[in-house]
Design a protein that fits this description.
By secondary structure, the protein is an all-alpha fold. The protein has 2 domains: 1-80; 83-125, no CATH class. The protein is built from 2 helices and no strands. The longest helix is centred in the N-terminal third of the chain and has 72 residues, at 2-73. It starts with a helix and ends in an 8-residue tail after the last helix.
């Protein structure tokens, strides 16, 4: 009877030891995986920090360039005049008595468009 108790105790110790060994091995694998993830994240962090530094440098250079351009063009007094060349290509269409309703509608749309685009040159025509 005593032998069975000792044998049962040894079996419990062996099973408990096996379970503990399995859990320790599993935890060790998880730790290794976490170390690899940590290393990868540190590399990605270094890349991201480098990209941020490059971006900040570009921002500084762009800002300096814009300021320089503003200072250089501040002394320029020339006025810029833009003439719409499309206004010289067409003008107001006059309707005739022979025009259909659809043609009259198209003429009205054309003339409204012309007046909208060529507001400044309307006085010339």
């Amino acid at each position: 009877m005593m032998a069975y108790l000792i044998l049962g105790g040894v079996a419990v110790v062996l099973v408990s030891g096996s379970i503990a060994h399995y859990k320790i091995r599993k935890a060790s694998q998880e730790i290794d995986c976490l170390f690899k993830q940590n290393e990868q994240l540190q590399q990605e962090n270094a890349v991201a920090q480098t990209q941020v530094k490059h971006f900040e440098t570009r921002i500084k250079k762009t800002t300096a360039l814009l300021i320089a351009m503003g200072l250089l063009t501040a002394c320029n007094n020339k006025a810029i005049s833009v003439i719409n060349p499309s206004c010289s290509g067409f003008g107001i269409i006059k309707a005739s008595r022979q025009d259909t309703t659809e043609t009259l509608r198209q003429i009205a749309v054309h003339n409204a468009t012309y007046r909208e685009i060529c507001k400044e040159t309307n006085d010339d025509h």
